[in-house]
Amino acid sequence: MSHDNMSKDTLPESHDSHGTEVAAHGDPFADPGLPAHEPRRTDIDERAAKRAERQVSLLFILSMLSTVGFIASFVIFPIDKIVYIFPIGHVSALNFSLGLTLGVALFCIGAGAVHWARTLMSDHELPAERHAIEADDEVRADVIEQFKTGAAESGFGRRKMIRNTLIGSMALVPLSGVVLLRDLGPLPEDKLEHTGWKEATKAKPIQLINMNTNEPMKPEDIVVGSLSFAKPEGLEEDSHEFQVQIAKDALMLIRIAPEDIKDKESRDKGFEGILAYSKICTHVGCPISLYEQQTHHALCPCHQSTFDLADGARVIFGPAGHPLPQLKITVDEKGYLVATGDFDEPVGPSYWERSR
């Protein structure tokens, strides 16, 4: 009779329905256990262990040197320097050196840790049966004991060379991230404090140039209730720095009857009711271009910050943090409107380093 026709009841206890042999205790597969532990060369030869320790330490030292090289690259290589690297081709010297040094620094830490684990740390396998997620007191005590045993067998406390070089490499690598912040751009220094009007003095004033006609402006060009825009003399639209400079230099000119100007200091900085304010909103730097003639209010179209230009451009509504900076103006010997100094406050949004 074939096995296919044989009844399950007629099979021996040592076979399943397909005739497969079953272990004596009833499990389909017996636990083969772990193979006998074979000691490594570093376990039985102290000279080999010392050699492995030096190799691990060397990798950590290379990591430290690479981190120093990463930082040095920012100083050595200009951002526009191009070099030829075979077989890659022409690449940025700065980018190539940063990638190479940071990659070596991280690789050496990983390689050192792996080499340490494979040659010097204990490699005895400790099987454990699956258990409930929540551990009882006995299991927790066993885990703590195993941790202490592992720490002792790792030689972290005994092998000071490895310990110290690992700490050194791990301490230096984060400096790479700190240095990367320097790559966000050049330091502003005091550039945010000044604009293109900073060169203006009483002895050498700067003319106000109409943004639409590109011609110098006279007081009679500006009528009461009008709004005009100006830029400093010498700032040309085809210049490389125009967009950068106009974002700080742009002027908003309005003319108010002198008796309607509420703030005396603001009136004194103007000329015959002509007031020159920064066009850049003090909230997030949007250009202001909306002016209400009857109330003398200027409105930022981005977030509706509203400034009273008849009262020192103070904020009367919206999220802006401070008034619009004002530029002191007068006329030169030819009757053209000129500036005799920079804005009284840094233009644009507030920032924590503001000195004024």
Provide a concise account of the structure shown:
By secondary structure, this protein is α+β, with helices and mostly antiparallel strands. The protein is 32% helix and 14% strand.
Molecular structure report:
This protein is 32% helix and 14% strand. The protein is of the alpha+beta class. The chain folds into 3 domains: 1-32, no CATH class; 41-126 and 135-184, no CATH class; 191-339, Rieske [2Fe-2S] iron-sulphur domain (Rieske Iron-sulfur Protein, 3-layer Sandwich), CATH 2.102.10.10. A hairpin with a 4-residue loop joins β7 and β8. It starts with 40 loop residues before the first helix and ends in a 17-residue tail after the last strand.
Helix content range: 25-40%
Strand content: 5-15%
Largest sheet: 7 strands, antiparallel
Please compute the radius of gyration using only Cα atoms.
39 Å
The name of the CATH architecture of the largest domain is 3-layer Sandwich
Which parts are unreliable, with pLDDT below 50 for 5 consecutive residues or more? 1-22
Assigned CATH class of the largest domain: Mainly Beta
Contiguous helical run count: 7
Topology pattern, helix = H, strand = E: HHEEHHHEEHEHEEEEEEEE
Give the CATH topology of the largest domain.
Rieske Iron-sulfur Protein
The tally of strands reads 13
In whole angstroms, how far apart are the ends?
104 Å
* Shape summary: elongated
Number of domains as seen in the coordinates:
3
- The whole-number mean of residue pLDDT values reads 85
The helix-and-strand class reads alpha+beta
The CATH fourth-level homologous superfamily of the largest domain: Rieske [2Fe-2S] iron-sulphur domain
